[in-house]
Amino acid sequence: MEHFELNELKQHAANLALIVDDRERRIAGLDQAIAERDGQIASLNHAVAERGGQIASLNQAIAERDGQIAGLKQATSERDGQVASLNKAELERDGQLVLLSQTVAGRDQEIAALRNSTSWRITKPLRFVSGLLRGKRDQLRVVRARGLKRAISLVKRPDMAVAQELDQLPNGFDPALYLKLNPDVADAGGDPTIHYLHHGRREGRVFSVPDLCFDHDLNVDRETVLLVSHEASRTGAPVLSLNLVHGLVGRYNVIVLLLVGGPLSDAFRLAGAAVMTSSNLRRNPVLAQLIVGQLCARFHFKFALVNSIESRVVLPALGEYFVPAISLVHEFASYIRPRGAFREALFWSGEVVFSANVTMENALAEYPDLGDRSAHILPQGRCLLPLGEFNEEQMQAERERIRRLIRPKDIAENSVIVLGAGSVELRKGVDLFIECAARVVRTPEGNRYRFVWIGKGYDPDNDIGYSVYLADQIRRAGLQEHVFFVDETNAIEVAYEEADLFLLSSRLDPLPNVAIDAMAHGVPVLCFNKTTGIADFLIESGLRNHCVAEYLDSADMAEKIVALAAQVLRESVADRCREASIAYFSMKEYIARLEVLAQGACDRTRQEKADTQVILGSGLFRRDFSPPRRQAQTIEAEVREYVRAWASGISRRKPLPGFHPGVYLEQHGLVNQGADPFADYLRAGRPAGPWDNPVIVAGDTKGTDLPANQRVALHVHVYYPDLLPEIMTRLSRNRICPDLFVSITDEKARESVVSELKNYKGQVVDIQLVPNRGRDIGPFFTAFGQRIVANYDFIGHIHTKKSADLKDATVGQSWYRFLLENLLGGESGAMADRILANMKGDTSIGMVFPDDPHVVGWSDNRAFADILAVRMGLENLPDNFVFPVGTMFWATSSALLPLMNLKLDWDDYPDEPLPYDGSSLHAIERLFSLSLSANNLRSVTTNVIGLTR
Question: Which keywords does the record carry (predicted)?
């Protein structure tokens, strides 16, 4: 038993020994790990010591860099001083250059006078020989090539040739007038006499104003009217002009001014009008002004009828001389070139009369801004053509010839004659006429149809622009026995007598006389919808189903032609066409309504003349602000144009900064009804009201009390990084250094933007990449808005602007410069300082923006604004108001709250591309200033003297 326990104890002791050994090994391992950790800690301590040394070195380097920066700042300050000195020296040099330029100009005049003198020409050979003796290379080269005698003769020849050619100058040649009538020659410089002799004579240049020669005695007891026709051809508008003369000569003296003569010229005289023709007038506004001036000096016109947009060249001159002008518009604005010509014509017209609704709709579609221009739709009366120079026997022969061509004796008795008429051109749709013929001929009884087109211009041998394709179309469609062309004729009435149907295939044709004449002869007229005023007339007369095919739908047209081939239906429709057209197209009624319109135009023109005189007499019209920048005009012409703009409703502008005529008109009303709002304001003694807006003018900002930089934020949206340097340069002209918040839409632009901003004296708080949504407004509201409004008192909003949607890039550049100069400064000095000082000193100012000379209203943005206004609690939005045109401004944070509280997100902004006008962003642009009333704040505008757009 004891032995067993002893063995057990020995075993237990052995186990304990093993455990002790294991524990000692583990303790040894721990000691080794602790030693390794101590080694690591020692290494770390060593590394920390090294990093401390590095940090000390970095601090030393930073201290050195700070020293360098201080040195650079000092160098920059010294450089700024040098730049200021250089600028001063440059100004002094500019003054010296002006004096030098004046001296040189005077010397040039002396040299020019000397070279035009007889002594200069006589001594020219001697100067040549003198130069030869001095060894001048040019003279030596001529002598070596030609010999001495020949060289001297060459020197003499030009002066001798000019002297001989001077005898060939036409009587009355005036060099100064030649330059005025040919501005391109004046722009090129050079001698007008030499230009005319060497070039102008051959080019047929205008050199004088034709004498006013009339072979017609005027009745002193009658008023005199002027009728302007672009030509005297036997076509639509000139024929209407002739019929107007017939209707007016019984009550007025009628002076007819033809811009181009033609076969109807004698007919105007025979009708009793005094006629003047000036073939150079149509495309020469200067000549038009001179001729109209002569006419107005000789005759006191009651009014003028300007027939056709093609006669528009006389309209500005008639406006200058206060002659009431009624423009008769037959053309579609979409094909009038150059663009803008249509708008200018309507601008200078006292009344505008469209011959059909389709032409007025087209004008508004092409020029939406014409919506405020009052206009009338008057269908012209039926026009009668003179017989021309044929005697009765010749006319009878012509009638028989046309009759045989249209309905030859050998054609079937049941043949259907479909007539078309007009000049052979694309607008008249002759190809559509042929296409309809092809469809009709393919019908079961197609062989009995004969399509005849009467008019000038079909010449497949020479006209490769249109006729050659028409001939090919006829051949390929197999229509040689069904489609025929007949040249224009004086016996067109015979064609109506022989025709069964008249197909007006025109693509664009307002109210063609041939269609009116055909209906008057009892011929049913068919046409395409939306191409002519005849379609409107037929629809109103209940003939749509029979006579009006869908727009350029030849299949629909062919069906209608085949249906009307049935005699009973054709005769019924013919009677309805004749009765309706006679009642509708009355020349007597047309002229009577024109006279009523003319009387109203006379009254308004007298008012415009009185208003112009009042504005001129006030001395308040700002020539550096109101007129658009273009060729220099007299102040009389500028004020006349200003008054005409408000009378016509086209291109309205403000007369001076701080006054809005539209607000006066809307909220004050006119003392004299029909007067110009500004002239009425002046007559009323310049009453105070919301139409008067305070203006901050550029000037000295020294000593102004500016807000602290940290209370001013400026948001800059950089879509065009290349324009950022100009913003920063202008901002640096100011003492104020606002905190910058910059938005970019392309990450690639970040580097250049950062580089441009690195030298900014203030703080660049954030540069943020934003989606390309909401233009500049989206980043302002959604990216930075809440943050800026919460932390700043004064907030600016600027963006890089190119106006890429404008075709003329210079317009956008001028606008951008106008905005930046007014809001940041530059040549005008420190405008941002001046604006912020005013805002700090007057707590009623909520927003400041440039006073734009254009009068801009809602246009297509009212519907968007109404929706937003409801959300903002705004009621009764006015029609006339001022707002930051271009969306750049300075504002207080409280002024922006109504719009900021909309909490617009990126999805609230419309997708690109945006239209030039008509979007929620354009509505917000207008609501910036209108929302100020919610917080009893007001807007103030800026003006830089001498700067406009």
Answer: Glycosyltransferase, Transferase
The closest of 647, 657, 656, 827 to 726, measured between CA atoms, is: 827
- Nearest Cα to Cα of residue 713 among 764, 779, 774: 764
Question: What secondary structure letter does DSSP report for 653?
Answer: B
Helix (H, G, I), strand (E, B), or coil: what is residue 320? Answer: helix
Any idea which residue has 């023109």 for tokens? Answer: 605
Question: How far apart are the C-alpha atoms of 583 and 8, rounded to whole Å?
Answer: 144
Comparing 42-56, 285-299, 745-759, 791-805, which segment has the lowest mean pLDDT? 42-56
Alpha helices of 483-532 — where are they, by DSSP H? 492-498, 513-520
Q: Convert the pLDDT of each residue in 470-507 to its tens digit.
A: 999 999 999 999 999 999 998 999 999 999 999 999 99
Cα 138 to chain center, whole Å? 52
Average pLDDT over residues 816-833: 95
**Closest to 657 (Cα-Cα) out of 698, 710, 713:** 698
Residue with tokens 């901050």: 696
Pairing of strands 889-892, 845-850: antiparallel
Among 11-20, 273-282, 888-897, 922-931, the minimum mean pLDDT is found in 11-20
CA angle centred on 256, ends 250 and 258, rounded to 5°: 150
- Amino acid, res. 135: G
Indicate whether 117 pLDDT > 70. no
H-helix or E-strand spanning residue 144: helix 137-146
Residue type, 171: N
Sign of CA dihedral 585, 591, 593, 597: positive
Dihedral pair phi/psi, residue 235, rounded to 5°:
-120, 180
For the cut 60, the answer to whether the pLDDT of residue 125 exceeds it is no
* CA–CA distance, 257 with 213 (Å, rounded to integer): 12
| All residues at 6 or more sequence positions from 565 whose CB lies less than 8 Å from its CB, including other chains | 416, 445, 449, 500, 501
The answer, yes or no, to whether residue 359 has pLDDT greater than 90, is yes
Measured between alpha carbons, how far is 317 from 296 in angstroms, rounded to an integer? 10
Amino acid 155: pLDDT: 47
Burial of 613 (0-12, 13-18, 19+ CB in 10 A): middle
Which string of b and e fits 155-194 if b means at least 16 CB within 10 Å? beeeeeeeeeeeeeeeeebeeebbbbbbeebeeeeeebbe
Cβ atoms of 453 and 430 within 8 Å: the answer is yes
What residue type is assigned to position 108 of the chain? Answer: D
pLDDT of residue 388: 64
What confidence score (pLDDT) does residue 121 get?
47
Q: Which amino acid is at 906?
A: W
Residues 232 and 265 sit within 8 Å (Cβ to Cβ): yes
Q: Contact 687/664 with Cβ under 8 angstroms?
A: no
Q: What is the largest CA-CA distance in the chain?
A: 174
* CB-facing half-sphere around the CA of 848: CA atoms within 13 A: 29
Closest CA to 851 of 662, 689, 653, 682: 653
Distance CA 691, CA 693 (A): 6
Under 8 Å between Cβ of 565 and 587: no
Q: Are the beta carbons of 279 and 206 closer than 8 angstroms?
A: no
Specify the residue for token string 């901003």: 757
Task: Give 414-455 as a DSSP string.
Answer: T-EEEEEES-SSGGGTHHHHHHHHHHHHTSTTGGGEEEEEE-
Cβ atoms within 10 Å of 387's Cβ, excluding its own = 13
Two structure tokens written together for 810 = 């210079």
Torsion angles phi and psi, residue 802, rounded to 5: -120, -15
Global confidence as pTM:
0.79
Dist CA 85 CA 747 (whole Å): 40
Cα-Cα-Cα-Cα dihedral of 872, 878, 879, 884, to 10°?
Answer: -60
Tokens read off for 339: 């663009």
Indicate the average pLDDT of the chain: 88
The CA–CA distances, whole Å, from 849 to 811, 823, 889, 924 equal 19, 7, 5, 15
Lookup result for tokens 């000692």: 24
